[in-house]
Amino acid sequence: MQTERWKISVGGIVQGVGFRPFVYRLAGDRALTGFVTNTPEGVVIEAEGQPSQLRNFLDALRKEAPPLSQVGEIVAGPISLLHDNDFVLRHSTVFGPVSTLISPDVAVCQDCLVEFFNPVDRRFRYPFINCTNCGPRYTIVLRIPYDRPHTTMRDFVMCPACRREYDNPSNRRFHAQPNCCPDCGPQLGLVAVDGQRVAEREEAISEVVRRLANGEIVAVKGIGGFHLAVDAANGQAVSRLRRRKKREAKPLAVMVAGLETARKLCRLETMEEQALESQARPIVLATKKEDHGLAEEVAPGYDQFGLMLPYAPLHYLLLQGPVRALVMTSGNRSEEPICIENREAEERLAEIADCFLVHDRGIHLPCDDSVIALQGGMVRQVRRSRGFAPKPLELAGTGEMVLGVGAELKNTVCLLKGKQAFVSQHIGDLKNLEAYRVFQKSIDQLASLFEINPSLIVHDLHPQYLSSRWAEEQKTVPTLAVQHHHAHLVACLAENHHEGPAIGIILDGTGYGPDQTIWGGEMLVGDGSGYRRFGGLESLPLPGGDAAVQAPWRTAVSYLFAAYGENAPELPFMADHDCGMIRSMVRKKLNSPLTSSCGRLFDAVAAMIGGRQVIQYEAQAAIELMQTAEGLGEEVFPCEVYEENDMLKISVRSLIREVAQAVQTGMVQGEISRRFHAGLVAVFTRVAEEARRREKINTVVLSGGVFQNRLLLEGLLASLDRVGFEVLLHKELPCNDGCISLGQAVIGRESLKKG
């Protein structure tokens, strides 16, 4: 009978996810001989047998792959026969070019949970239970191939029982690199604020559960870093956490044991429930119920909770006690990255936490919880991190290796290799040394894991961003500066595999323009090879620059002065502020840079109508303004459009006059907000139609952090759809600055193609 031998190379996420034992079982079922091994390129198989069985085997590799795997390219071809006697699993190959992928960290699976809660199982209540289908991956891997010596689990020698599981191809833990048990794996310990160990293992859990019930703040080491945990129903405890962390008002994430509890807190759509229970286990922003029962201090003045379900075994133990909902906020001080090391947490969080629940499994790279929200008919990323990174985005085209280093806020970095874009976990705001170190480490990690040596480093046009300065310091690699909003446009095009050109409506808070003004309410026409500024909001003075960002009343006074001149009306909000100082700054052009920022326009309107005057977290004024609207009505504030310097300018001054008149006539805040939002929807639709008429382009991209405003996003999406536009939105990356690094990298690659 005819026999053939095939060499099969499988790319994608195929290491650390049970792929080799899956291959071993497939081969055994089909009486094939040969071997399977991990290599830096992925999984390599040599299989020998009848052609029909080989074809069946090849088909099953993709169709029946393990749940955590993501099978990429499969290349198969005949080679010389070797007449093996059986099919074996070989040790990994260490050397060679890297093209395999690493799985994100994923939630503990149902099979492990059954064992976890079984009193007769040897891993009963063991907080580090895992298998090939679940557990830590990206945050523990040091390099590839993904084998135990190349992870932070290298410090733990498996006991005989775990070794038997690890070596048995029919076992669920076959080659599960973090495999361990209470006899050989990591252990918990409870540390007091004075550094003394006060409890170990099960006793540590019992003590922490007791302390949480008593209102204490516990720093808990998880998979991607530390959380600060407190009883979400205890208003005094939550307030104490806010004071200590210096996070006065920004909503805090809440973890509950299961979907049943989540439904009692929020009104959940089907897609939100699916996201909560997914392997990624992100934080899901969902609308509060009135009788939710949690402390108002958890999300004051906000109509949503950020909910998540347990994803580490330890979380289930914490929620077994009397506390049914835990605030689980990032373990850091304000503006700093999340802590990952025990000693680091004990030092940096000493003034916040009452005690520390630690363990001795290392975390190589910090990874915050991801955040998603249901907007525009699908769940969208607000912060892409644990559970998603470093899963690559597939691009439509290929080219040279390029590194994009992102923006200053919500920083991510992106490395392009072939048709794949590796976007890092959320790094955060590059405003301090600790965040800058994580930024550098994240670049090194991605470049090392995937052997990426970029031909070009792309950074933001703003020369003072730390990411831009880092790029310019890399003397051995050429650099390219890219305008912020152009990167937004191209990131969305790349996600949607659309070459462009497109009309980009890019709305955010801040982006440095080539004219040295602050952009942020832009309508661009372009693609990866270039852009032009077709239109946008007119630029007005921002008195005090960053000071006005923190104090929206400053922007409101400036915009009123711009709209009316010396005859600006005295609105009620102005009575509490030194408006003369602001007018003087604007009149003399002192520290009053021009801005077209849509974010600042929202701030100004919010302050004018008596809303938030000084913010305590980013976009607070705009969020509260949106919430007062409770939907869009048919009435709009009309907005003038005029042409200047080959641009269509949307008159901010005309909108400000409409808002001021409404305040003077006593219109309620909610109605003003509805008309303001509807006015923006109408005017951006009108200018997009004019761009289509002139440029013969029917595709519109919506990007920028302002589009996290669900009212504006869904209103504009519906309006553009009604007039026949093809509208592109972000799918896998946030619309905020978390997408910037991808856009930068794609623009850089296009520039290399042009030479």
Summarize the helices and strands and which ones pair or pack.
Layout: E1 4-13, H1 19-29, E2 33-39, E3 42-49, H2 51-63, E4 70-79, E5 87-89, H3 110-116, H4 160-167, E6 188-192, E7 197-200, H5 201-213, E8 218-221, E9 226-231, H6 235-245, E10 253-256, H7 259-265, E11 266-267, H8 270-277, E12 283-288, E13 304-308, H9 313-318, E14 325-330, H10 342-348, E15 355-359, E16 371-375, E17 378-383, E18 393-394, E19 402-404, E20 414-417, E21 420-423, H11 433-449, E22 456-460, H12 466-473, E23 479-482, H13 484-495, E24 502-512, E25 518-527, E26 530-537, E27 540-541, H14 546-550, H15 552-564, H16 579-588, E28 594-595, H17 598-608, H18 620-629, E29 641-644, E30 647-650, H19 652-664, H20 669-695, E31 699-703, H21 710-722, E32 726-728, H22 740-754
Parallel strand pairs: 2-5, 8-15, 10-13, 12-16, 19-22, 22-23, 24-31, 26-30, 31-32
Antiparallel strand pairs: 1-3, 1-4, 2-3, 6-7, 6-15, 8-9, 9-14, 10-14, 11-12, 12-13, 16-17, 18-21, 19-20, 20-21, 24-25, 25-26, 27-28, 29-30
